[in-house]
Design a protein that fits this description.
The chain is 19% helix and 29% strand. By secondary structure, it is of the alpha/beta class. 33% of the residues are buried.
């Protein structure tokens, strides 16, 4: 009889080994399933945290936008006061900072200057109401729990923005973002047209080629007109149509004031001489009380353009060189570099330097010739400008300056302006020469004067009231200060 004990033992050992392997595999499978579940939970939590962070960041960005909105969201007084410049700088101009450079925001995290919290029913409706809330666009993903604006921690900055949001996931994720803002603080332009010297020549055909609507005309020395009636009269009920003065029967405007450092000279005075002086004409302003022209300092504008706009050098042929690097054969014609295709094609801040890229002098001023059919931007030329657009212009939609209606309520009327060839600011340290009949919406500043290149050339300017509030399209009023963005939790 043969013994089978050895084979039975081998089968037992094999079975035991198989059971151990199955057990190990089961443990590994369970572990992998647990790890997979944890990874899924971690990935889901990370995704929710990313969404929460983006929502908090977006809410802070909306606060930044409030500073750039001419008519802040919902017309809420607290929001409107947030962007108001309540201080005056060392020169007496409206500013976010006082004469010592201290920000108008002085609160703290515990006692902020501006504070909204969802725990307050009124604030919650303002923040999160699905129909009218400021942050209703993010309502499907989350809601703003708290919003604070208070003093900056870094000297020279404007304020700190602190926002907290909660997602609508289960469980909800809360995220708080804090950042600081700096302010561009570009001096506002308080007049439609400003010239530092005479405007017009005292000879037939040499009269001022400038007509102004909706704002002030400031002339450093003498203003030359053909007749006194050429000066628009200011009237509270003057029609506001968007038409030029040559398209209407009377020269009237609701907002125009004329400030002249010297006197008004006439090349064809009325016979007999008239003694009727318009109430909106103010002569003999120099030296007392003084004619204050808005000044944009050379170095300040240059720094701003290099950071927030575009900077060009110019040669004696009028070619432009990006970044200020002059290389033979690399120059651009102004109509190649400075041209807007249509309304809304905003060039932003364009700074064109002197010939030697130092502060303007009589011997280092270049000549910029602008022939583009339409320009939209803030053009700062440290020299002379020839404005000669080669097209009929475009129609733009805008708002008139504010008028008082029904007591103390201020309102601005929507209006269309046809044939506009320039929309923005034209600033020249030298002379602006006009070639053709040109219409401009915005403001013009000439350190010297504005002259016509020939008979029939003229410049008609409709003032953009927002420029007087420091709102320059294509330029930030405030910006995120680098290195100040942090997440609190």
């Amino acid at each position: 009889m043969l013994c089978t004990c050895g084979k039975d033992d081998q089968r037992g050992i094999a079975l035991l080994g198989a059971m151990v392997i199955v057990l190990v595999l089961s443990v590994l499978a369970t572990t992998l399933m647990n790890l997979s579940g944890q990874e899924a939970l971690s990935a889901n939590a990370a995704g929710q945290m990313a969404v929460a962070q983006q929502l908090a960041d977006a809410s802070a960005e909306l606060v930044v936008d409030w500073f750039h909105d001419p008519q802040p969201t919902s017309g809420v007084p607290a929001i409107m006061s947030l962007r108001a410049k309540r201080n005056h700088d060392a020169e007496g101009k409206s500013s976010f900072f006082d004469a010592t450079g201290r920000s108008q925001f002085v609160g703290s995290n515990d006692q902020p200057d501006f504070h909204l919290q969802a725990g307050n029913d009124t604030d919650n409706r303002l923040l999160n109401d699905p129909e009218s809330g400021i942050f209703r666009a993010m309502g499907q993903l989350g809601q703003v729990e708290e919003l604070k604006v208070y003093a900056p921690t870094d000297p020279g900055l404007l304020c700190t923005i602190d926002t907290t949001i909660a997602t609508k996931t289960n469980p909800s994720v809360r995220q708080s973002v804090r950042l600081q803002l700096g302010a561009l603080d570009l001096p506002p332009l308080k007049a439609a047209v400003q010239v530092g010297q005479h405007l017009g020549l005292l000879l037939p055909g040499g009269e001022s080629p400038v007509a102004v609507h909706w704002g002030d005309l400031k002339v450093g020395e003498n203003l030359v007109l053909k007749q006194a009636k050429d000066l628009p009269r200011k009237g509270a009920i003057a029609p506001v149509t968007g038409q030029g003065y040559d398209e209407t029967d009377q020269r009237e405007d609701r907002w125009m004031e004329v400030w002249v450092g010297g006197d008004v000279r006439l090349t064809k005075p009325a016979t007999p001489p008239t003694t009727d002086v318009p109430s909106n004409l103010h002569v003999g302003q120099h030296p007392i009380p003084g004619l204050h022209l808005d000044d944009w300092p050379y170095e300040h504008l240059k720094r701003l353009a290099k950071r927030f706009g575009r900077y060009f050098a110019i040669d004696r042929e009028g070619l432009l060189y990006p970044q200020g690097v002059i290389e033979i054969g690399k120059g651009l014609l102004p109509e190649e570099a400075l041209r807007s295709q249509a309304p809304g094609d905003q060039l932003g801040l364009i700074f064109i330097d002197t010939l030697d890229q130092t502060a303007p002098r009589l011997d280092n001023l270049g000549v910029l010739t602008l022939r583009a059919p339409y320009l939209e931007g803030t053009i700062v030329m440290q020299g002379h400008v020839v404005l000669a657009p080669n097209g009929p212009g475009v129609a733009i939609s805008t708002l008139t300056p504010p008028t008082t209606v029904r007591g103390n309520t201020l309102t601005r009327t929507p209006i269309h302006l046809a044939g506009m060839q320039f929309n923005g600011v034209l600033y020249a340290s030298g002379t602006v020469t006009i070639a053709g009949r040109i219409k401009l919406y915005g403001a013009v500043v000439a350190g010297e004067t504005i002259a016509a290149s020939g008979s029939g050339s003229s410049l008609e300017v409709w003032y953009d009231h927002d420029l007087g509030q420091g709102l320059f399209r294509g330029l930030p009023i405030v910006y995120r200060a680098p290195g100040t963005w942090v997440t609190r939790y």
